[in-house]
Amino acid sequence: MMRCISPFLLAALLVSGCASNHSAVAPASREAHAISSLWWQFFWVLGIIYILVVATVLICRFKSRRDRANINLPQPADSIPGESKTHRVIAILTGVSVVILLGLLVDDLFASRVLAPKNDPGALNLTVTGHQWWWEIEYGDQDPSKVFQTANEIHIPVGRTISFTLRSPDVIHSLWVPSLHGKKDLVPGHPATLVLRAEKPGIYWGQCAEFCGAQHANMGLLIKAESASDFAVWEDAARKSAVAPMTDQQKHGQQIFLNSTCVMCHAVSGTIAGSHNGPELTHLASRQTIAAGTLPNTRENLALWIQEPQLVKPGARMPGTGLQPNDLADLLDYLQTLK
Amino acid sequence: MFSLYPKSLHRSRVRMGGRWCVVAVATTMLLCGCTREKRKFSGGEPNSNAAVSSVRLIDLQPGGAQPVSHVDNPFEHNAYATSEGKRLYSSYNCASCHAHGGGDIGPALMDDKWIYGASPENIYASIMEGRPNGMPSFRGHLTEDQAWKIVAYVRSMSAQVPQGVAPNRSDEMKSSPAENSKKKENPAPAAPPTSGEQPQ
């Protein structure tokens, strides 16, 4: 018995051993709970059936070998002993299978009811746009002056319905934050909706789940679920323009930013930089990662990313800048003020 | 009977030779395809200083015109670079003045009229240095390889690059055929616009 169960225990341990902030069986939202409980129900029901079927096959195998040793004469075809009993067993098992399958179907329908997008007037509306290879996020508002953009890092309040509108201007991407919801494709020209309500504060990792080109594997994002008051503080800060540079180095760094290739693709609110070809940098220093979850946001990594992006993420749209060392240092000074 | 043997041998040799020919041609074509489709993510652009220093701003020269050696832009032999040029053309808003090649408040790029020259180094200089009557200078705002990729794309609009290299589709709705089915133009110098007149 122990030998039969141990592979299942092992599998269960392996599955639950996944990182808790990036795992479909460590749910942190209403929707992920529905998916995860459905998954476990299927796991146990189908697992037990599997064990029973394998056990039956093995028993029959050994039993028939023993029977063959005892019976030498073949029976006439019309009088196989126990034929009506076999038919009865088959009929009962078919009935049981139908009932189990119908039960799983009902289970699935209940989970789908939780996942179905609902109209919630108090929902926070976010537009997530997948680009090759980063995520653009826009926080919508009734008041256009309160709309703001960010990239690769989403903050959401716990306990409030979040409605994501998913778009793509280039190829098909897929948003997958396993701890919060299932996968949803971002299809060019066909906006999709994903609704979720986080229940547990934490940082959850997400990943593009549809192959989208050379750097598909380096197209990550993180979602930070926090209390409503923390979220309000963050939201207020995120709506503000970038802080003005203070020191001479920072001022020079800003001039470098505005007079080089940076300004062609990146936006920093409060300056003339307003292009949205690349990620918004207004609050770059407050983010945890750069290059869509590829590197931790440290000064050294930022320097590497600015000088040699094609070493870090070959094929990314970001070109190497070839800045002089002192210009680069000033630019980094400036970028690190963008909190 | 004896004569049949060498004849059939000869025939099979011819057949073998033909087969080798086909294999050789196919391999050459495949290898050509390799460089045409190769994705190089950085570098590979021509020497920009040499290119710009060879550009004359005016045709008049003492002692008559000298032959010019044009710069070869390696990106014009590479489909990836040309399509990157197309992406940059739209990202950097070239279409706001030149539309999708047909011209608007800026001159058309898909026709045969070139006020400041149609060769790669002339177009590179136009992008990086700017031109009178509205063309801004992108020096410092583009990396050299980005500029050379845009040059390759601009030349593909009038079929100055091999057909297999020119982009074959657009991401948006378009009113003209794709670049790889454009008619090849013979670029000719055109008069610069007089003051107050729209460039054509």
What do these coordinates show?
The complex is a heterodimer of chains A (339) and B (200). Chain A is an alpha+beta fold. Chain A has three domains: 30-65 and 84-115; 124-238, Immunoglobulin-like, CATH 2.60.40; 248-335, Cupredoxins -  blue copper proteins (Immunoglobulin-like, Sandwich). Helix content of chain A is 40%, strand content 17%. Chain A is built from eight helices and twelve strands. Chain A has helices at residues 2-16, 30-70, 83-115, 228-239, 248-258, 299-307, 309-312, 325-335; strands at residues 124-131, 134-139, 148-151, 153-157, 162-167, 173-176, 184-186, 192-196, 202-208, 220-226, 289-290, 295-296. In chain A, the strands form three sheets. Chain A has a five-stranded mixed β-sheet. In chain A, strands 4-10-9-6-7 form a five-stranded mixed β-sheet, covered by helices on one side. In chain A, strands 11-12 form a two-stranded antiparallel sheet. The longest helix of chain A has 41 residues, at 30-70. Chain B folds into two domains: 1-35; 71-189, Orthogonal Bundle (Cytochrome Bc1 Complex, Chain D, domain 2). Chain B is built from six helices and two strands; from the N terminus they run ααααβααβ. The interface between A and B is medium-sized, with 17 and 12 residues.
CATH superfamily of the largest domain in chain A: Cupredoxins -  blue copper proteins
If strands are numbered along the chain, what order do they take across the biggest sheet of chain A? 3-2-1-5-8
Note poorly predicted spans of chain A: none
**Major sheet attributes of chain A:** 5 strands, mixed
Helix/sheet category of chain B: mainly alpha
Strand order of the largest sheet of chain B: 1-2
Low-confidence runs of chain B: none
CATH level-4 homologous superfamily of the largest domain in chain B = Cytochrome c-like domain
What's the overall geometry of chain A? elongated
Kindly identify the CATH topology of the largest domain in chain A: Immunoglobulin-like
Mean pLDDT of chain B: 82
Could you name the CATH topology of the largest domain in chain B? Cytochrome Bc1 Complex, Chain D, domain 2
Q: What is the number of helical segments of chain A per DSSP (H or I, 4+ residues)?
A: 8
The radius of gyration computed from the alpha-carbon positions of chain A, rounded to a whole number of angstroms, is: 28 Å
Largest sheet of chain B: 2 strands, parallel
Compute the number of structural domains of chain B.
2
The total count of strands of chain A amounts to: 12
CATH class category label of the largest domain in chain A: Mainly Beta
